[in-house]
Design a protein that fits this description.
Elements lengths: L2 E5 L5 E6 L2 H4 L5 H15 L58 H17 L3 E4 L9 H10 L5 E4 L5 H7 L5 E4 L6 H6 L2 E5 H11 L1
Parallel strand pairs: 1-3, 3-6, 4-5, 4-6
Antiparallel strand pairs: 1-2
Helix pairs in contact: 2-3, 4-5
């Protein structure tokens, strides 16, 4: 089992934490992580894009000019796709882009992402993270102390001040234990987690 240093908000080591191999030391499966990222991005798509086909564009009932004798190419409608203002060929229509992944695949993808962060030494465990007031400056101070610029920050309950203090920092995203996903783990450089949240993650995924 791997051990990771536990830091306080000043960046000082105050202990160590023994990680569970079943979650943080699995063989990294790139394929399932790729599937999980694809699913995350697909599920975010609104799918509301729409354009009209030639059957839906207004007008074009009359043949624009006679078939023969004009020297021009024959045309049946001014709403054909080749005309300005005509319909769109294979026009996009509203649709649902989301797709399903099996629960075991999603779990393996998460465990692979966790393990990759441990292998890259990009996982930071904080003893606790609490702020007395909503202050972005204080949040930035903590991140500087633990030497983190881009971070996916996973916190436990009763952390509203932390969430509100971090939301104005573009390179930081906060989430609860139940909202951890592969896309955010891979998108942000560091995975920062509180000790209580880490224990909760192990209870959920072990």
């Amino acid at each position: 089992m791997a051990n990771v240093a536990v830091l306080n908000t000043n960046g000082e080591q105050v202990g160590t934490y023994e990680l569970k191999d079943e979650i943080f030391a699995v063989d990294v499966n790139m394929h399932v992580m790729h599937l999980a990222v694809l699913q995350n991005l697909a599920n975010k798509r609104q799918g509301t894009q729409s354009a009209k086909t030639r059957a839906e564009v207004r007008g074009g009932g009359k043949k624009p000019y006679r078939q023969k004798g004009t020297g021009r190419a024959r045309q049946g409608s001014i709403r054909s796709p080749q005309w300005k203002g005509g319909g769109v060929v294979f026009a996009p229509k509203p649709r649902d882009y989301s797709f399903k992944l099996n629960k075991k695949v999603k779990r393996l993808a998460l465990k692979s992402a966790f393990s990759q962060k441990v292998l890259d030494n990009k996982m930071i465990v904080l003893d606790e993270l609490k702020l007395a007031e909503i202050k972005t400056k204080e949040m930035k101070k903590i991140l500087d102390a633990i030497k983190v610029d881009s971070a996916f920050l996973v916190i436990g309950q009763d952390s509203d001040n932390v969430v509100l203090s971090a939301r104005n920092i573009p390179s930081v995203k906060t989430a609860g234990v139940n909202a951890v996903n592969v896309y955010d783990l891979l998108k942000y450089d560091s995975f920062v987690v509180t000790k209580s949240a880490l224990q909760a993650i192990e209870e959920v995924y072990i």
